[in-house]
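Note on ligand handling. Small-molecule inputs were canonicalized before submission; formal charges were left as drawn, and no protonation-state enumeration was performed. Where a ligand contained multiple stereocentres, the stereochemistry in the source SMILES was retained. For manganese (II) ion, this procedure yielded the string shown in the input block below.
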Amino acid sequence: MPDPPSPPSIDTTPPTSTHPAFLGELDSVSSYDAARAVVLPLPFERTTSYGKGTGEGPAALLEASQYVETYDEELDAEPADQGIYTLPAFEPTSHDMAAALDEIEAQARVHMGAGKFVLSIGGEHSLTAATVGAARQCFGEIGVLQFDAHADLRDTYEGTPHSHACVMRRVVDLGLPTAAVGIRALSSPEAKLMRQSNLPVIWGYQLETAEDRFDALLDALPRQIYLTFDIDFFDPSLVPSTGTPEPGGGFWQPSLRLLRRLFDRKTVVAMDIVELAPRAGQPSSDFLAAKLAYKCLGYALLGPSTADARTATR
Ligand SMILES: [Mn+2]
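Structure output:
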């Protein structure tokens, strides 16, 4: 592995004009040092192909999060009390795509290295190559679990290997084990690669039986997981606000059951939620993304096993 570039200084100045803090200004999120988790807004949009606007995703998610209840009835807890700190939005200065991804990687590595659970919010899916790279350097052996409508396994797309449509190929190139849930749009070469490499997958057409298939999928991955969640995994009837809304996607409660199972069985070291492209007058996608972020933070910080134990003693 090459020597990592020296990390940038930690910019923990409170977010001001660009976006509100995740869940609003809570006492428990006021201190970087005390927070167990950080939300890293990455309004990164360079290679989107169909619907544009994913650069506005982080601000829309954060705005919607102002209206998310901090009490989680499933966990019977206030996950926000664990400390969730919202970082300023980070935008790389490099025009060169590879250099820009290096900047994002260095930024994510600072916070992972500081022991935080880093939830990156995008932004286009290409940024995951950077945050996965950071997680690999900080945590060693990891697998990558992808919730997505698209395989994102193209070698190049529209002339660049750094496109959102290539991001999982770049992860596979890193030699990391991967698995995917919800895939329902891909090219013949991508399908061939998945077959030849035996990449574990629950296809979109198998989502109705995903809970029966999910354990076997997880068994194929190491203990430590980076979770990348492309919001277009969901059915467009739930989440129309994304660049390429593919029919036949996941629904809310069944998807949460999979996520809960994931956090119960594996150690999720970091995650992202990407490809929210907000549309005026359609706040439900933004709200779903915000709620998804908070559910995952709750699972990560409190653990579903904790909730089961609580439920059992109630
Ligand atoms: Mn994707």
